[in-house]
């Protein structure tokens, strides 16, 4: 009996030994992971200041400023503001940035400034740091384009009103492309015993001296500026006994585009055109070349001739 039990015990041990051992479960090693850069939001303050002045540089009281401020592309503020005696608007906004490989802050302020009796003007300021961003905004009235002497001397109120209408046409409707009517430039001047009503423009283009000489530039300014002014001059102002003709002065600029360091040089062109010639041109009785031939043309105060062909 004891022998039998021993046999069974040995058989059981042999059977157990034949069963595969259960592998020991080891903890899996941590996988190597890519480092994760967390976006960390930071905030800085961007400050802006607008100073509204008139053409004499004095602060404008009572100007309305409609403005909006953006944090990047996100609109943060949209407000209206009325200036006080210092003519200033000051405002700020909190700008957010995301840390990635660099820190970037972007904000902007868009504005439109207006006041009764003045031409509205608009613009934009941008910032990418915490320094104060400032700009000076100049409001102009129609009378700002007339010389003070002319305003005081002219007694014909109807003529003055017509001149202001013409100024509106030039300033508001962009009658003259790429040229700006200069402040206080409208006046009556004398030249060779005749009186001329003067308008002075500043052309914003710079012409390549390698392609266009001074005479070429003069012809281009006649086409781009003078021609566009002649018809409105005749329509609004023609027939006045106060002057013989018009002194239309345009300052153009030239430089060599081959020289990266070249500075632009101004050239002044004066077209002194009799009023009757302007009237004939409007009525299509004469050509542009005949207008030039019947006028006095000065380039930097030297008399010249221009041939359009």
Question: Quick one: biggest sheet?
Answer: 7 strands, mixed
* Head-to-tail CA distance between termini: 139 Å
> What's the mean pLDDT score?
87
The ordered H/E elements are HEEEEEEEHHEEEHEEHHEE
The amount of beta strand, in percent, is: 35-45%
Q: Which oligomerization state do the chains in this entry correspond to?
A: single chain
Sheet/helix structural class: alpha+beta
How many individual helices? Answer: 6
Kindly provide the radius of gyration, computed on alpha-carbon positions and rounded to a whole number of angstroms: 39 Å
The overall strand count is 14
Low-confidence stretches at least 5 residues in length (pLDDT < 50)?
12-16, 31-38
Give the overall form: globular
Helical content stands at 10-25%
Provide structural commentary.
The protein is of the alpha+beta class. The protein has six helices and 14 strands. The chain has helices at 2-18, 148-153, 157-172, 214-236, 275-282, 288-293, and strands at 41-53, 64-71, 74-82, 88-98, 107-114, 121-127, 133-138, 179-181, 187-191, 194-208, 245-255, 265-274, 296-299, 302-304. The strands form three sheets. Strands 8, 9, 10, 11, 12, 13 and 14 form a seven-stranded mixed β-sheet that branches. A hairpin with a 2-residue loop joins β9 (187-191) and β10 (194-208). α4 packs across α5. The longest helix is centred in the last third of the chain and has 23 residues, at 214-236. The protein starts with a helix and ends in a 5-residue tail after the last strand. Residues 12-16 and 31-38 have low confidence and may be disordered.
